[in-house]
Design a protein that fits this description.
Elements: H1 5-34, H2 38-64, H3 83-110, H4 114-145, H5 147-153
Helix pairs in contact: 1-2, 1-3, 2-4, 3-4, 4-5
């Protein structure tokens, strides 16, 4: 099905967002892992996987509309130097992703591409209800508990040594 060129271009911009978020989460997850913050590693690694799934859905839609997915483009990564900055940077990027999704949803309505709009609404709900909510909650916990207590709570439990 030949899609609208404006919609395809907008989907490629969204694809850039998802791939950038995936890369940023990937790096942040590895940093958490290196620091022994196992719970944060697990969650942010999962978020990276979620972003990959979002990218996959966008690629499938672009291909269906007979467009060419741009999988090479990335926005600059904002890698944090510590946990609060990493969480803050991830949240700011999710805010950007959500706003861009809203704009492309409006474009899809204008161009009467309701199927693409429906796909994007699911991505927006996942971004707002899961990704943004969790990141906002973590920053709130740091404010309430203090950074040291928060970090200690995110170490998780490692397997006890045998013997």
């Amino acid at each position: 099905m030949k899609g609208n060129a404006e919609v395809i271009d907008a989907l490629n911009r969204l694809l850039t967002n998802e791939l950038t978020a995936m890369d940023q989460y990937f790096v942040h997850a590895r940093m958490y892992e290196d620091w022994g913050l196992n719970e944060l590693y697990e969650r942010i690694n999962h978020e990276s996987d979620d972003e990959r799934e979002h990218a996959s859905r966008l690629i499938q839609r672009i291909l269906f509309l007979e467009g060419k997915p741009d999988v090479a483009s990335r926005a600059p990564l904002t890698i944090g130097k510590d946990t609060p900055e990493m969480l803050h940077n991830d949240l700011q990027y999710e805010y950007k992703v959500a706003e861009d999704l809203r704009q492309v949803i409006a474009l899809c309505e204008e161009k009467r591409d309701f199927q693409t709009r429906d796909i994007l609404q699911v991505l927006l709900e996942e971004t707002e209800a899961d990704h943004m909510y969790w990141l906002e909650k973590q920053l709130g916990l740091i404010d309430k508990m203090g950074l040291a207590n928060y970090l200690q709570s995110k170490m998780g439990t490692e397997a006890a040594p045998a013997g």
